[in-house]
Design a protein that fits this description.
By secondary structure, this protein is α+β, with helices and mostly antiparallel strands. The chain has three domains: 30-129, Immunoglobulins (Immunoglobulin-like); 131-245, 3-Layer(aba) Sandwich (Glutaredoxin), CATH 3.40.30.160; 248-367, no CATH class. Helices cover 41% and strands 25% of the residues. The chain contains ten helices and twelve strands. It has helices spanning 2-18, 153-174, 190-194, 224-244, 253-264, 269-280, 298-319, 321-332, 337-345, 349-365, and strands at 30-39, 43-65, 75-78, 84-94, 104-114, 119-121, 125-129, 137-140, 144-148, 182-187, 206-209, 214-218. The longest helix is centred in the middle third of the chain and has 22 residues, at 153-174. The radius of gyration is 30 Å and the shape is elongated.
Length: 367
């Protein structure tokens, strides 16, 4: 009896082994977002896995970036893999080709198709491209969130107050307020800031990522005098860009940079000297030339900034802020600089230049 019982147990055990649960292939195509690996500022790696009854033949990442656009933009990138019923793959965003500023936000999802033509998508997810080299802290106002990692909170709040004052001055001169929340990243130094950029210029101390609503700037507590001016400058670029954003193109460089220089406060003595010397020696650059990018030559670049400030101040002092507001509005609506100036100031660009040069000669004579 004992032997018979043992035999029965063995048979039952074998049957149990034969019918024990085993992993089976899914009956439909499935895709799983397996995360994002950030290597700031160099790359973002998006990963995904997919499995189904038929070979996976197409895996692509679709994403949108939180930035100003004239129409919704969805970008696509394809992952490389060998077709199979079980796939794990990724796509890497190499920032050497198209870089993102610190704090940029991306919404993304995966789209997967198999050999039968079945297509599935993962649930949209968001990721921020944060500069994780530092332990950031934040203070916030109605218009601005300021991030910093070095110095006291009072230092950060002082800079936040500078942002608020600059925005109020711009509201008077430009006639508009920001309609989006601005993110400001304050780095300990220009060197730390350049470490957040893929291909920085060696002189970079601050930059406005205007389409993203982000300003990044290197200001140490001992650099407050320079930092306040630079912060006002970059904020102006951002606010003016937001106010004049249109499909018709940007502002002339002299107008954009002149407004930003004006927001800094009284010009540095070095800029005044350069401007006066050029006026006396008949070496001023024409405003039509300054419609485009400034020269890479240091001397000409400084003169370009000095002239831009001088012209913008002449327009504001002579005609007031309402004419400037009308000028910006007309350009936003697609008018050329000549047509916009004609309607706002009664003269085209050449006429304005004649007026300004005459005023500058008089100013130099009394200096």
């Amino acid at each position: 009896m004992r032997r018979l019982g043992l035999a029965v147990m063995l048979v039952v055990g074998c049957i149990g082994l034969a019918f024990s649960p085993v992993a089976s292939a899914p009956t439909s195509l499935q895709a799983t977002d397996t995360g994002v690996i950030a290597q700031f500022p160099a790359s973002l790696e998006f990963t995904v896995s997919a499995e189904g009854p038929d070979n996976v033949t197409d895996v692509r990442l679709l994403y949108t970036i939180e930035k100003m656009n004239h129409a919704p933009v969805v970008s696509e990138s394809w992952a490389v893999f060998e077709p199979s019923t079980n796939v794990s793959t990724s796509w890497t965003w190499d920032m050497r080709r198209a870089s993102l500023p610190p704090g940029a936000e991306i919404t993304y999802w995966w789209q997967v198709r198999d050999a039968s033509g079945t297509t599935v998508k993962t649930t949209p997810a968001s990721v921020r491209f944060d500069d994780d080299r530092f332990g950031w802290q934040s203070v916030q106002s109605e218009d601005v969130t300021l991030h910093w990692y070095y110095g006291s909170e009072s230092y950060a709040r002082q800079l936040l107050e500078v942002c608020g004052e600059a925005i109020e001055i711009l509201a008077q001169d430009v006639g508009t307020r920001v309609d989006r929340h601005i993110q400001v990243y304050v780095y300990r130094s220009a060197a730390d800031l350049r470490g957040a950029m893929v291909y920085p210029q060696e002189w970079t101390g601050g930059v406005a990522f205007t389409d993203y609503g982000i300003v990044a700037i290197g200001i140490g507590p001992e650099d407050m005098e320079w930092g306040v001016r630079a912060l006002r400058h970059e904020l102006t670029h951002l606010v003016v860009h937001t106010a004049t954003f249109s499909p018709y193109g940007g502002l002339p460089t002299w107008l954009d940079e002149g407004l930003a220089m004006h927001a800094e406060g009284e010009p540095a003595a070095s800029f005044v000297r350069i401007l006066y010397h050029a006026a006396q020696e008949d070496e001023l650059i024409s405003l039509r030339t300054l419609n485009g990018p400034f020269s890479s030559d240091t001397t000409k670049a400084y003169l370009s900034y000095a002239q831009s400030l001088s012209v913008v101040r002449y327009l504001l002092d002579t005609y007031g802020s309402e004419a400037m507001q009308q000028l910006l509005m007309l350009m936003t609506e697609g008018e050329t600089i000549d047509a916009a100036l004609q309607q706002s100031y009664g003269s085209d660009l050449d006429g304005i230049e004649v007026e300004w040069r005459a005023a500058l000669r008089e100013e130099v004579a009394y200096a």
